[in-house]
Design brief:
It is a single chain. The protein is mainly α. It folds into two domains: 204 residues, MFS general substrate transporter like domains (Growth Hormone, Chain: A); 219 residues, MFS general substrate transporter like domains (Growth Hormone, Chain: A, Up-down Bundle). It has 16 helices and no strands. The chain starts with 10 loop residues before the first helix and ends in a 15-residue tail after the last helix.
């Protein structure tokens, strides 16, 4: 594929950097392994216990460590050589996947499965902050949106391909095979990072200073976010989209049932969500090049919010799948806009700590949404829940484009400044 003539800011343009290609390749194989491992893990626990509760506990065990330990992961990314941190994360996870395979072979007590899964997630908490902090050093600033879109595309492909591969492996053998294959993917990811030359690319912005305490370092990350209202609003938009995703894990079951889509309807709707997410990555670079980026962010939120009440009145499965795909497209656009914005707005020396707060907050939105959805559906019904959630997203979109009176003149000047002449994140949201 010829990337030399690709437009700046596109996925193709980001792939012309050899170091970023290696990082992305390692991330791709690792995430593919993670999704097939997730399917095998849940299948193993359910097969052993025949309990949806145990399956839910195991799923929670894979998410909660990121929410709880995310700030510490960001601290590690800001304090230590990121190349070594990423390789260490992969090596520890290799050992834990081998341990899970031994768990299957020896028929150890089932309680160990969620414990080992939680340990694997905890070991991975510094990895994504390291990737996010390293990416701006591997590509030119103009190609940063494309690099973040490429990372989102990799995740979308992994969501679709990982479970499919995991299902094949379960048909061919025991879950131990899936766990061992996931261990191999972590090894390949470590080799990909090793292939990138060590040096300044992976070093924290400030070296030689006496490191602050853990609480002080986390407080510094929070202060960096608080001092930048634009960053807070970006993170808020990402949290709202994650919350909507959490509600969809519950409400789409009701939608599938109401449309008579059968046992596979829920899967079809989520396949549509994944397809929409991939479309969103393809549109990200074009969206970033548009004028008035804060309106682009608001439009992406509208793409998430508007289909929700329309789902409540949809009468055809095909229409429902299309509407869900639109929400997936909007959510990924918000994610890419947010990540690129944070990378450009925040000082490099505190980025890891700030990202270590933003990422678990976003994932916490998924947990919150999955808890809110059944309560809301019981209170106002599935239709009422879809309408209420859609209106909440649209209300936040309106908040983003509302101009603060005290800074109206400054905002007007910012709106008239070409995107190429200033950091895109500085005009992503209303001042």
């Amino acid at each position: 594929m010829n990337t030399s003539q690709a437009k700046p800011g596109t996925i193709r343009a980001s792939l012309r950097y050899p170091a970023f290609r290696r990082l992305l390749g390692g991330l791709a194989v690792s995430e593919l392994g993670d999704w097939l491992y997730n399917l095998a893990l849940i299948a193993l626990v359910y097969d052993r216990t025949h309990s949806a509760l145990w399956a839910g506990i195991t799923t929670a065990a894979r998410v909660i460590p990121i929410v709880v330990l995310g700030p510490l992961g960001g601290l590690v990314a800001d304090r230590f050589d990121r190349r070594r941190v990423m390789i260490t994360c992969d090596v520890v996870r290799i050992a834990l996947m081998v341990l899970l395979a031994l768990f299957v072979v020896t028929h150890a007590p089932i309680v160990l499965a969620p414990v080992i899964a939680a340990m694997a997630t905890a070991a991975a908490t510094p990895y994504l902050p390291c990737v996010a902090a390293t990416t701006p050093r591997l590509v030119d600033d103009a190609d940063l949106p494309g690099a973040n879109a490429a990372r989102s595309a990799v995740n979308g492909i992994a969501i679709i391909g990982g479970p499919a591969l995991g299902g094949v492996l379960l048909l061919l053998g025991s879950p131990a095979l899936a766990f061992l294959l996931n261990a191999i993917t972590f090894g390949l990811a470590a080799l990909a990072v090793l292939a990138i030359p060590a040096g300044q690319t992976f070093r924290p912005a400030r070296r030689g200073e006496r490191p602050a305490g853990v609480l002080r370092s986390v407080a510094d990350g929070a202060a960096a976010l608080r001092s930048c209202p634009g960053a807070l609003r970006l993170v808020g938009a990402d949290i709202i989209c994650s919350t909507i995703y959490g509600t969809q894990t519950v409400l789409l079951l009701l939608v599938s049932r109401s449309l008579g889509m059968g046992a596979h309807g829920y899967g079809y709707l989520f396949a549509g969500l994944g397809a929409g997410a991939l479309a969103g990555t393809a549109l990200a670079s074009r969206a970033q090049r548009m004028g008035h980026p804060r309106y682009v962010l608001a439009a992406a939120l509208c793409a998430v919010g508007l289909p929700m009440p329309l789902l409540a009145v949809a009468h055809w499965p095909g229409v429902a799948i299309i509407l869900v795909a639109v929400t997936g497209m909007g959510a990924v656009l918000v994610e890419i806009l947010t990540e690129t914005g944070l990378q450009r707005m925040l000082d490099e020396d505190v980025f890891g700590r700030a990202y270590g707060l933003a990422l678990p907050a976003s994932l916490g939105g998924i947990v919150a949404g999955s808890l809110i959805a059944p309560l809301l559906a019981d209170a106002v019904g599935g239709t009422g829940a879809l309408v209420a959630l859609g209106l909440a997203v649209l209300a936040y979109a309106l908040l983003l484009i509302r101009r603060a009176p005290a800074r109206r003149a400054a905002a007007a000047v910012a709106d008239e400044t070409p995107v190429a002449a200033q950091p895109a994140a500085e005009v992503l949201v209303a001042r």
